[in-house]
């Protein structure tokens, strides 16, 4: 069976994980003020410009694959709406795939969606620390959404 999870994500030292998740070093003692996470994850699949599947490292060698709706943006749809919107949706998805190819290591800050019991919304931080949703919106491929 191939190891499609890639090298490195699940074999980081505690100090390396702490630096990626919280910044600084273990000695800083910085604790996140988030209800969930942050978690290390790898991109598994880009569904559209505002939804991705990620493989999340939950710790203790436990991993899960979940769908994350990007917090704060709304991108054009791929399969509904007028043809112009579908074309913009395809272009937006391709742009996101260039930002986060399959296997990209990111930091996930998830929140339970208050409108749906079946999904999570969240922020994905790119390897350079930039927020994915803000990057997509700044490029003109999504609008800000209030949820």
List keywords for this structure.
single chain; 147 residues; alpha+beta; OB fold (Dihydrolipoamide Acetyltransferase, E2P); five-stranded mixed beta barrel; two-stranded antiparallel ribbon; 7 strands; disordered N terminus
* Number of E strands: 7
* Percent helix range: 10-25%
Q: Approximately how much beta-strand content do the residues carry?
A: 25-35%
Q: Could you say which overall geometry the principal axes of the C-alpha atoms support? A: globular
> Number of helix segments?
3
In CATH terms, what is the architecture? Beta Barrel
Main sheet? 5 strands, mixed, barrel
Average pLDDT over all residues = 82
Strand order in the sheet with the most strands: 1-2-3-6-5
Q: Compute the CA-based radius of gyration.
A: 16 Å
- CATH topology title: OB fold (Dihydrolipoamide Acetyltransferase, E2P)
Distance between the termini: 40 Å
Helix/strand structural class? alpha+beta
The tally of domains stands at: 1
The CATH C-level class name? Mainly Beta
Low-confidence stretches: 1-9, 25-34
One letter per element, helices H and strands E, the order comes to HEEEEHEEHE
Describe this structure in words.
The chain is an alpha+beta fold and 147 residues long. The protein has one domain: OB fold (Dihydrolipoamide Acetyltransferase, E2P) (Beta Barrel), CATH 2.40.50. It contains three helices and seven strands, in the order αββββαββαβ. The strands form two sheets. A five-stranded mixed beta barrel has the order 1-2-3-6-5. Strand 1 and strand 2 (51-59) form a beta hairpin. The longest helix is centred in the middle third of the chain and has 17 residues, at 83-99. It is globular.
């Amino acid at each position: 069976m191939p190891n499609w999870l890639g090298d490195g994500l699940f074999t980081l030292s505690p100090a390396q994980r702490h630096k990626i998740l919280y910044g600084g070093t273990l000695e800083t003692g910085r604790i996140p003020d988030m209800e969930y996470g942050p978690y290390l994850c790898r991109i598994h699949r880009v569904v559209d410009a505002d939804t991705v599947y990620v493989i999340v490292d939950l710790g203790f060698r436990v991993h899960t694959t979940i769908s994350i709706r990007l917090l704060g943006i709304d991108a054009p749809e791929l399969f509904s709406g007028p043809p112009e919107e579908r074309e913009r949706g395809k272009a937006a998805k391709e742009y996101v795939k260039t930002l986060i190819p399959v296997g990209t290591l990111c930091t996930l800050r998830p929140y339970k969606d208050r409108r749906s019991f079946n999904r999570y919304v969240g922020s994905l931080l790119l390897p350079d620390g930039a927020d994915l949703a803000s990057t997509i919106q700044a490029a003109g491929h999504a609008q800000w959404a209030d949820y």
